[in-house]
Amino acid sequence: MSIAGVIVLGGFYFGSTFYLADMAGETERIGVRTLVDEIQDISGIKLDIYTREDKRTIPSETIEKWFEPYIRSYTNKKDIRISPEKVEEYLISIAPLINIPPVNAKFILVDGKAEEFTPSEYGQNLDIDVSKKLIIEAIINGKKEVILPVNMIEPSITLDRVNELGITTLIGRGESDFRGSPPSRAHNIKVGSARYNGTILKPGEEFSFNSLLGEVGEQNGYQPELVIKGGKLIYEYGGGLCQVSTTLFRAAIMAGLPILERKPHSFPVRYYDPQGFDATIYPGVVDLKFKNDMSGHILIQSRIEGTKLIFDIYGPDNGRKVVLDGPFQHDQKTNGSMKAHFIRKTYQRELLVKEDRFDSNYGAPAPLERNPLE
Fold first, then answer.
1. Same domain, 277 and 313
2. Which end of the chain is flanked by fewer CB atoms within 10 Å, N or C?
3. Per-residue burial over 314-353, b = 16 or more CB atoms within 10 Å of its CB, e = otherwise
4. Residues 351, 292 within the same domain
5. Are residues 171 and 316 in the same domain?
6. Do residues 132 and 209 share a domain?
């Protein structure tokens, strides 16, 4: 039957056969595709996948594990299908080999100004959802290769952007030494400090250490470290992150930025000498916060040189200068408890405009419960 030149067709299943019929009652028999019939030898399937200039082969033993039996609802007959969940698990496992993080421009000081010495580079991330569909379609249709898409990631820091934002001068630097740290702690310091590299704050914007930190666990690359908790030695992830918060706190202090929240450690920790110049953090409990009160944007960059962690804060050159008195340690007891303080003096073109005092009160080192992020 045709309506306005369009043929209207209907159809129905009988067993595993689909019958196509027009409205006049004439029928055409069409066999229903089943993977179990079309793919006779699953063990012989392999697939080449390409991502830009990268090529790898998915072996047949891997693909074979993706197939699973099931019963067709309209025929009640056995068939096989490819599990999207298993394909996705495979893609997630190889994504770290394909993904490339963007590289921010790095700077050195020349005559007191920041200049580029490492150009920025785009990164890439494997598009897992689209790749999953392409792989399943390729296997079903007997293809031997497939090109998987990747999403390009723009670096947050480029020379052009820094120039546009007026970021020209090193306004504060913080340093600390983690010499003697076990490998897992040094690893966590490297992973944690990288999260803050390239952070830009707008004028008036507040910085929260915990907001940028995210989850502290194996899935984000952290390793477990021995800590004292409940009077016992146990493993917890993220040991060493307080080295990161302490070093960034020192940079913010030297930049003359207002400190909105800072708490010293509960007892002296040798990695944070001189005592009285540290900042502990613990997600959901203790944070490190400061504010960009400069006239323009500021840029935070981190790097590791040997066993030294360094944070640099760049911003506009507005004539600000910071001088520290201290830190001074006092009221030291035989059990290791002590107090400390330092005074920050902020000058604006040689004129003293602000004076802040930062106090620290440390208890005895043991047997207190330790912050696992120290």
1. yes
2. N
3. bbbbeebebeeeebebeeeeeeeebbbbbebebeeeeeee
4. yes
5. yes
6. no
